[in-house]
């Protein structure tokens, strides 16, 4: 029952939506993932990850997203780069270093392609624009 239908309704989030990404590093290379969807982002490359669900920590969201998108278990480590404000300040991208557990091998369950990039190949794919400063911050972490 609507108790006060004349009151204004809050339709926008007060806090920016948190989006987490995993910079999975193995053998001195980082995993880049090619987006399949939506059409305007298809062909751009990103870190596996996604939105943090209500009640979930950032680390829990990263572990869940890596299972869903790549079928792997990861250990989440340090932050890489700064918070990146996106979508007119309505979202924030936070990227963490991650490592693969149990010898798991990533599969492109939701992406159109996966590629391991060494320091010399870091800029060989067209990253989503918001990721540029993170990719720069990754350079010193790769031999
Ligand atoms: N996962 C990820 N998203 C990124 C990166 N850079 C970047 O701008 N984004 C943007 C793309 C999307 O607008 C948003 C993440 O949305 P998403 O669709 O991947 O999130 P999700 O997996 O939770 O998707 P859904 O459940 O809402 O379908 O953040 C990145 O490196 N990784």
Provide the descriptors you would attach to this structure in a database record.
143 residues; alpha+beta; 8-oxo-dGDP phosphatase activity; DNA replication; 2 helices; Nucleoside Triphosphate Pyrophosphohydrolase; globular; 7-stranded mixed β-sheet
Describe it:
There is one protein chain. With 143 residues, the protein is α+β, with helices and mostly antiparallel strands. Helix content is 14%, strand content 34%. The protein contains two helices and seven strands, in the order E-E-E-E-H-E-E-E-H. It has helices at 58-70, 132-138; strands spanning 17-26, 29-34, 45-46, 49-51, 74-86, 91-100, 113-117. It catalyses: 8-oxo-dGTP + H2O = 8-oxo-dGMP + diphosphate + H(+).
Fold topology:
Elements: E1 17-26, E2 29-34, E3 45-46, E4 49-51, H1 58-70, E5 74-86, E6 91-100, E7 113-117, H2 132-138
Parallel strand pairs: 1-6
Antiparallel strand pairs: 1-2, 1-4, 2-3, 2-7, 5-6
The structure holds 8-OXO-2'-deoxyguanosine-5'-triphosphate.
8-OXO-2'-deoxyguanosine-5'-triphosphate binds at residues 19, 21, 46-47, 49-51, 86, 93, 128, 130-131.
How many structural units, i.e. domains?
Answer: 1
Shape: globular
Main β sheet profile: 7 strands, mixed
Here the CATH topology equals Nucleoside Triphosphate Pyrophosphohydrolase
Low-pLDDT segments: none
Give the C-level CATH assignment.
Answer: Alpha Beta
Helix/strand/pairing category: alpha+beta
Q: CATH H level: which superfamily?
A: Nucleoside Triphosphate Pyrophosphohydrolase
Rg over CA atoms:
17 Å
Cofactor: Mg(2+)
GO biological process, one term: DNA repair
InterPro entries: MutT-like (IPR047127), Nudix_hydrolase (IPR020476), NUDIX_hydrolase-like_dom_sf (IPR015797), NUDIX_hydrolase_dom (IPR000086)
GO molecular function, one term: 8-oxo-7,8-dihydroguanosine triphosphate pyrophosphatase activity
